[in-house]
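Crash report, auto-generated. Payload:
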Amino acid sequence: MSTTDEPVKASEVEVEASRLVRVIAAVVLVVLSGTFLVGVFDIRSPKGFDPAGPRFFPLLVTSAWLLLSIGYLVEGLRSPRTADKGDRSWFEPVAISALLVLYAFLVVPLGYLIATALLFFVAARVLGSRQVARDLIVAVVITAIVYIAFTQFLDISLPEGVLGL
Amino acid sequence: MITQAVFGDLMHGFGTVLDPMNLLWAVLGVTLGMLVGILPGIGPALTIALLLPITFNFSDPIGAFIMFAGIYYGAMYGGSTTSILINTPGESASVATAIEGHKMALKGRARAALATAAIGSFVAGTISTVLLTFVAKPIGNLASQFQSTDYFAITLLAMVAVTALVGHSLVRGLLSLTVGLFIGLIGLDSLSGAQRYTFGTLRLLDGVDVVIVIVGLFAIGETLHVASKLRSTPDRPAVLEKGRLRTGYLSKNDWKRSWAPWLRGTALGFPFGAIPSGGAEVPTFLSYTIERRRARKAGRKHPDEFGDGAIEGVAGPEAANNASFSGVLVPLLTLGLPTSATAAVMLAAFQIFNVQPGPQLFEDQGTLVWTLIASLYIGNLILLIMNLPLIQIWVQVLKVPRPLLYAGILVFACLGVYSLSGSGYEVLMALLIGVVGFFMRKLDFPIAPVILGVILGPTMEEQFRRSLVISNGDASVFFTRPLSLIIIILTVLALFVPYLPRIVARIRGTQASRDRLTFGEDD
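Recovered output after restart:
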C-alpha cells in the first residue's frame, strides 16, 4: 500500500474490454437511444409534449441517453488503443447464454426436473467442472429438492413434462 | 413522552420477533448473509433478488423482511472474513478492511483481526440500531409534510448522488442511470394509459418486472462475467493460526486500540448510510483514512503500524459498514428512498408486498417496522455468537467448487423468473438483461444506477407530473418551494462531488494527485 497521506482509491481504474469493444458498445448505445428517441413520437399523447403528459419523460430520458452515448463514443475514440485482457474468453459466456435459451424453450415440454438437472450439469461443465459423477448427483439432488419444496410446500406449480409426475 | 412511546413500540416489536417462526427467519437471514458476504462476487442484492419470487407466497411479509434485513447486515459481517484471510473482499464494503486486515493475517494475527471486525460490527450495529430506533419516527413525521415537488426532488437527488459516487466515470454512471430509467418507462403509462415502448407485444404492457431486471443484471450478468474469466482463479485461504481459544481473541492492548475506531466508524457509517452516497463504501474508506491520519499524528505513542497490519484500520471500517446499514434504513423506511443497490432491491420487495414505505409506514404497518427494527438487535447478537467461534466452519464455504456454485445460481435465477408467470419468456428476458449486465461489467459501467433508475424512475415521473397537474402546468413550482429548491440545488452539487479533489487543488493552485474521488460498486 502507498505510504503517502492520500485518501485511498477503492480500485484502480481498469476496463476489461479493449478499445474496439468499447467503441462498438458506444455505437450500439447511440443507435439504440436514437431509435428510442424517434420512438417517442409513437407514444399516443393528446397534448403532444406537454410536461404533464406521457411523452415528456421518455423524451428527456432518451435525449439524455443519446447525448451521453455520443459523449461515451467520443471518449472511446480519443482513448489510446488497448487490447483485450488475454485471460478473458468469449466461449463460456456465449455457451451459457445458448444454454439458457435452450432451457427457456425446453423447460415446459421436457419438464422442470429433466430440463433443470441438464441445465445444472451442462452449466457446471461449461464453467470448468470435470467431475461427471459428482456433478450429475448434485444436479439431480438439487433439482429434486427445489421441485419438491416448490410444488409441495410453496404451492408453485412447475412443469411436469415427459415424466408426468 | 416520545421516548416512552418508542420504547413501547420497540417492546411490541420484540414481542413479535421473539416468535419462534420469526426468530427462525432472522437466523436464516443472517446465516445466508454471512455466506454470501464470504463469497466474492455474490452480494446481498443478488441474494435478496433470488429469494424475492420465493417469498411471494409468504402470507405474512414480516418474516420475509426480517430475513432480507438479516442478509444485508449479515453480509457486512461475512465480508470481512475473506478480506482478512485471503485479501479478497467478499463485498465492496469490505475492501478497506482488506488493506490492514490481510496484513494482520500474514503476521499471524488473523484471529485478532477477525475479532475486532466482529466485535466492532456488533458494537456499531447495536449503537446505530439504537439511533435508528429514535430517529426513524421523528423523521417520518417530518417527511409527512413533504409534497409531490419535494418527493420529485429527493428521488432525483437519490439517483443522481448515488450515480455520481459509485463507479469510476460520471458519463458511464449516468448512462447506466438512463438505461434504468428507460426500462422503467416500458409498459402502460400509469396516468394516461398510453403504451410506451411496448413494441406491439402484450408481454410488455405491464412493463419489465423489476425482479427480472435485478436477477438478470446481478445473477445472470455476474455468472456470464465469471464464465468469461475462469482462468484467473482466486488463491486458497490463508491458514488460521491455532489460537488459544479460552484466552480470548483480543489482547488488552487490542481492546484499547479498537474501541475508539469502533465509535468513530459508527459515527461515520450511520449518517453516510442515511444520505444518498451508495451505501457503505464512502464511510468505510473515510474511516480508514481517518484512522491512518490519527495513527500518523500519534506516531510517538506507539509505532505507526499502518501498511503493516494496524488493528485500527480493521476496527474502523468494519464498524462503519455495519453502522451504514442502519443508516440506509432511515430514508428507506421513512421516505421510501433507497440509497444503495441492496436498499433498492429491498424497496422492490416492499412494493411487491404492497407495503408502501414512507411517512405513513409507521402508522399503517407499525408492527412490521418495529419488528424489523427489533430483529436488528437480535440479529446482531446472533451474528456475534455465530461468527467468532465458528469462523473455521464459515471459511469452508470457500471450498464449494466455483462451477457448481454458479450453476446453482443459474438454476435459482431461472426458477425465480420462471415462477413469475410460468413461461420461458421471462427466462429469455432475464437472459437479455443478463447479457447487458455482462457487457456493463466488461466495460466498467456501474450496476447500482440501473436498479435505482428502474425502481425510482416511475415514482419520480409520477410525482413530477402530479406536481404539474396541481400547479396547472406551472413549472416554477419546483423552484418556489424552498425545500424542493434546496434539494434540487443539492442534486446539481452532487454531480461535482467526484471532481472535488481536482477543484480544491485548482483553487489551492496545486496539482491534483488524482482525477476524481472513486468508490467501488455497491452491492
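Post-recovery validation: Residues 1-13 of chain A have pLDDT under 50 and may be disordered.
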